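Input (structure):
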C-alpha cells in the first residue's frame, strides 16, 4: 500500500519538474520539446486522476510531490543560471 503513495509522490514530483520545463520551452519557442513534455504531463495526470477517484489519501503525497518538484526545479534553474 505504501508503495502506491511513494509512486504517486515521485510521479507528481517529476511531472511538476516537467511542467516547469514545459513553460520554459514554450516561452523559448522550442515547440518539439514543449509538445513532447505535454504528452508526459497528460499521461501522468490521467493516471493520478484515476488514483484520486479510488483513494482520496493520494492527494497528500501528490500535493507534496507537486510542491517539492516545482521547488527543486526552480532552485536548480536558479543555481544553473548563476553558473552560466
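Output (sequence):
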Amino acid at each position: 500500500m505504501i508503495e502506491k503513495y511513494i509512486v504517486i509522490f515521485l510521479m507528481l514530483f517529476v511531472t511538476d519538474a516537467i511542467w516547469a520545463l514545459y513553460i520554459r520551452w514554450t516561452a523559448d519557442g522550442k515547440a518539439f520539446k514543449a509538445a513532447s513534455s505535454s504528452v508526459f504531463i497528460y499521461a501522468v495526470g490521467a493516471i493520478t486522476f484515476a488514483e484520486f477517484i479510488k483513494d482520496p489519501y493520494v492527494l497528500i503525497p501528490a500535493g507534496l510531490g507537486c510542491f517539492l518538484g516545482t521547488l527543486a526545479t526552480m532552485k536548480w534553474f536558479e543555481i544553473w543560471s548563476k553558473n552560466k
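Notes: The chain has a mean pLDDT of 90. The longest helix spans residues 2-27.
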